[in-house]
Amino acid sequence: MKHMQSENKLKNSISSLANAMLSFVKNLVSGFFRLSKRVQLLTLAVLLLLVLGIGVRIYNYYLAQARSENFSVQLVSTINPDVGGDESVLSFPGRLDPYLNAPIYSRVNGYMRKWYKDIGSEVKSGELLGKIESPDVDQQLQQAKSDLIAAKGKEEFAFISYQRWKNLVVVDAVSKQELDQKRTEYETNKSLRQIAEANLVKAQTFSEYKNIPAPFDGFVDSNTKCNTV
């Protein structure tokens, strides 16, 4: 609005100035030829200056108007939106802690013979992780086997002797006391055989401890732990 008012004032000023100049020129022309040559030259110089001034003012006016029109139009850059795909991925740092963490230890003395699962391996419950070499446990197992064989032999011999003494006591070849002694020897060796069998089972159980199984499904995160998530 202010721009239009300034423009109207400028136009009115130029119109008034043009009318005044026109009136002045008319009066000047009517008396121009009555003036001397010197005055005529001065008059022409003044007229030229006036014309140049008016021309410069008009030029500046239209130049300012053109500039204001250019600045009034703002140029912007536009783009066409595209539908995004699934390529956008948000990555955040984090740490995964196991739900269950079970340190695994050996129940027998010895040294590691072989480790079947490396760190990061997935394992199932009961799957063999490693095996321990234990000479003491192997020796105890072998001793238990030998003791059982010897106990069975003694039991068998005592049973044969007892059966023989039973036949002899019928014909009074031996006394009943001797028969009772043979029966006691047989029952004693029978008990020793049962003890040897129990010792063998115990030795076999300890020998199984040389195998290290996974306690549950999970992943190995060190040489002594098994984790589940």
Number of strands: 7
Number of helices: 4
Overall mean pLDDT: 76
What is the name of the CATH class of the largest domain?
Mainly Alpha
Strand content: 5-15%
Provide the number of structural domains.
Answer: 2
Gross morphology: rod-shaped
* Main sheet: strand order: 1-7-6-3
Largest sheet: 4 strands, antiparallel
| Uncertain stretches | 225-229
CATH architecture of the largest domain: Orthogonal Bundle
Terminal CA distance: 74 Å
Helix content: 55-70%
Order of helices and strands: HHEEEEHHEEE
User: Which structural category fits the helices and strands?
Assistant: alpha+beta
Q: Which topology of the largest domain does CATH recognise?
A: Helix Hairpins
Protein name: Multidrug efflux pump subunit AcrA (Membrane-fusion protein)
GO cellular component, one term: efflux pump complex
InterPro entries: MdtA-like_HH (IPR058624)
Pfam families: HH_MFP_RND
